[in-house]
Design brief:
The chain is an alpha/beta fold. Among the domains are: 158 residues, 3-Layer(bba) Sandwich (FAD/NAD(P)-binding domain); 69 residues, no CATH class. It is built from 14 helices and 19 strands.
Length: 440
């Protein structure tokens, strides 16, 4: 099949599109603004032997087809883990999810959480207008206010009352009373987290999962799009080059994509500007000794802890740190609408180290042998009340001008790695006008 298809973005969604097109006999051209492939699933390698992904990426898909593709991409050389996740709250370490692991917390808090949970379950038809309402109805006032509502302010950069509930899926486990009681009386009696086990490449970081798909496209890095003419079907790049296309697939974040399109209507541009997303400063810390943690990542609820979540890259694969060393990656969230970043990202390094020391994760400052910061302008979609109508307007326009959007920031959804890959496959089906390819 001879068809000129351009794909914008060399991340998981872009290569999902490339794979689907390759299976149909089409070799697309992928244009990537950065000097390397990976997009949001990039891995950053440092001269001292430490490596850090652009955020804590793991593969926990249950889709056997995707599992096999990813495994083939790394020649079946991957680590497999039983997921163990925990929480830190006011000096207490609690297995995740906390609602069924209250054991060890202050007795008064446990009693209040369970009492409020029982009262909440008595309401047969609670009025749910926002995420805060949902949390109170699902967990009761005390637990909701102490844990998920606090975390929401740190992770989503705004209060739960400003968010909708159409993103939840399996992310927050709603316990039975028996489970809550059991978790209060016994240490860690249940495994109910939505991530049961996960896989991670033995070498090359998370970006290694794209290795299989790279030859399936004509990859052109260093090609930042500055204009899209949908009538002439032409792309213009910052380096002065131009390229024509018959069909176009894009994983570019929607607020950046719309301004590139020639003659985009005012209402569409305004809608794109209303789409909110967090950014994240990833503070990377390398130690001269292994990390001592049973957990692969930890959630932090306290306002006086600077970071929101902590992952342990050296525990994912030994290749992520020099021999005998360990590493942390701390996430600091911001957003243009709710919590602008007003300090240099390097200024976050020392507060991160201070808090790691305070939590007991680092014994002494002299153990730190690597520090760096990765800033990702797009981290998580914020599901505020501007999103539904704005997204409908933007997607409707893109459908009209023939741009097949995909990925977390093209779909503008809370999607994981495998979902982003399949989003790219579906976009390829739209580009080929093949509806049967849109059901993966």
């Amino acid at each position: 099949m001879s068809k000129s298809i351009a794909v914008l973005g060399a991340g998981m969604a872009g290569f999902g599109a490339a794979y689907a097109l390759h299976e149909e006999g089409v070799k697309p051209t992928i244009y990537e603004a950065r000097p390397r492939l990976g997009g949001h699933t990039s891995t950053h390698f440092y001269d001292d032997g430490f490596a850090f992904d652009e955020g804590p990426h793991i593969s926990f898909t249950s889709d056997k087809r995707i599992q096999k593709l990813f495994a083939k991409s790394v020649d079946d050389k991957f680590e497999r883990f039983k997921a163990y996740v925990n929480n830190y709250w006011q000096g207490h370490w609690v297995k995740h999810p906390a609602q069924v692991n209250l054991h060890g917390l202050p007795a008064e808090l446990i009693v209040s959480c369970i009492n409020d949970f029982v009262e909440a379950t008595k309401v047969t038809d609670p009025q749910i207008n926002n995420y805060e309402d949902w949390l109170r109805a699902a967990f009761g006032k005390t637990f909701a206010e102490t844990f998920p509502m606090q975390y929401t302010k740190k992770y989503h950069t705004t209060e739960a009352k400003n968010l909708t509930t159409d993103w939840l899926g399996p992310r927050l486990y709603r316990p039975k009373l028996e489970e809550m009681l059991l978790g209060a009386l016994k240490p860690e009696p249940l495994d109910v987290h939505y991530v049961d086990d996960f896989r991670y490449p033995s070498n090359g970081g998370f970006v290694a999962y794209l290795s299989l798909f790279e030859p399936m496209a004509d990859l052109r890095v260093g090609h930042k799009v500055v204009a899209i003419d949908t009538d002439a079907r032409e792309l213009t790049f910052q380096n002065g080059e131009r390229a024509s296309y018959e069909s176009l697939v894009s994983s570019i974040p929607l607020p950046e994509l719309i301004p590139l399109i020639k003659n985009a209507p005012k209402d569409v541009s305004e809608a794109a500007n209303l789409l909110s997303c967090s950014s994240v400063a990833l503070v990377n810390i390398g130690l001269n000794k292994p990390v001592d943690s049973k957990a692969q990542w930890t959630y932090f609820y306290d306002d006086d802890i600077s970071f929101t979540r902590l992952s342990y890259p050296s525990l994912f694969a030994s290749s992520m740190a020099p021999v005998g060393c360990g590493s942390f990656q701390a996430e600091h969230y911001y957003s243009k609408k709710w919590k602008p970043l007003e300090v240099p990202t390097d200024s976050l390094i020392e507060p991160t180290i201070d808090d790691l020391l305070r939590c007991g994760l680092i014994e002494k400052r002299e153990d730190v042998v690597h520090t760096s910061v990765i800033f990702a302008p797009y981290a998580n979609v914020i599901f505020d009340y501007d999103r539904p109508k704005s997204l409908e307007t933007v997607h409707g326009f893109l459908d009209d001008v023939g741009i097949a959007y995909c990925g977390r920031y093209g779909d503008w959804g809370y999607i994981w790695t495998d979902q982003a890959f399949k989003s790219g496959e579906r976009a390829a089906g739209r580009a080929l006008k093949r509806p049967e390819l849109q059901n993966v």
